[in-house]
Amino acid sequence: MKLALLGYGKMGKEIEKVALQKGHSISFRIDKENKEELEQLSSQNTDVVIEFTSPESAFENVKFCLEKGVSVVCGSTGWNEQKKEIEKLILDKNNLAFFWASNFSIGVTIFLEINAFAAKLMQKYEDYNLEITEIHHTEKKDAPSGTAITVAETIIENYDSKKEWQLVENNEKNNLNKNSINTTTIPIFALREEEVKGTHTTTYFSEVDQISLSHKAYSREGFAKGAVLAAEFLKDKKGVFGMKELLKID
């Protein structure tokens, strides 16, 4: 396949390495310095765009590529409210595909399924409350992470009394009185530390014990492999897709 990389930072370069190893070619390597080259994008020179940029630019990037007639795999987070417009655009185009995931790791997808099961089980026990902690590198621009939001949304879908999530900033964690948080709300602690690829932990706690579920990424390679798999998955497809469709999870 001919893949365009929109966003050529650490993640883009990791995706390039995986794509080339799998025999794909790279039609464009677009970053801030050469964004004007994106004007040359077309369905003749590119099969799928893989977009990993920022919350501020993701919407316009994805929309531009789709209007150029090229399907998109997107891993940018922090622009959830605008994704509905992209999904509508896909329906209007009727011949393109859009694949979005807050995290392309197969392990994280399994982690989400475990969280869904745990939420159904734990909601029966009123002595327990829960919180989510995410830790990322200091260069990450959005907080909480898209994955942490997806974990929270997964729990809310499966835990009847949980209705919303609430961000707790890094410098507020030690001062937070857990009892001050409404029991219908899931607090998300967003921590930033050097050289952390991504750690997400769901903790259920009571006065006598706690249960923790955790996923820790050791490198970006797992995310890159998932992104390339998603691009391969989109070949000859139309519509909106995510990791559940890729991994055939009901």
Description:
This protein has 250 residues and is of the alpha/beta class. The chain is 33% helix and 24% strand. α1 (10-21) packs across α6 (221-233), α2 (58-67) runs parallel beside α3 and α4 runs parallel beside α5 (146-158). It is elongated, with a radius of gyration of 19 Å.
Outline:
Helices cover 33% and strands 24% of the residues. Strands 2-1-3-4-5-11 form a 6-stranded parallel β-sheet, sandwiched between helices. The chain is built from 7 helices and 11 strands.
Distance between the termini: 28 Å
What Rg do the Cα atoms give? 19 Å
In which range does the helix fraction lie? 25-40%
Total count of helical runs of at least 4 residues: 7
Strand order of the largest sheet: 2-1-3-4-5-11
What is the strand content?
Answer: 15-25%
CATH superfamily caption of the largest domain: NAD(P)-binding Rossmann-like Domain
CATH architecture call of the largest domain = 3-Layer(aba) Sandwich
Look at the structure and give the CATH class of the largest domain.
Alpha Beta
Count of strand segments: 11
CATH topology of the largest domain: Rossmann fold
Total of domains:
2
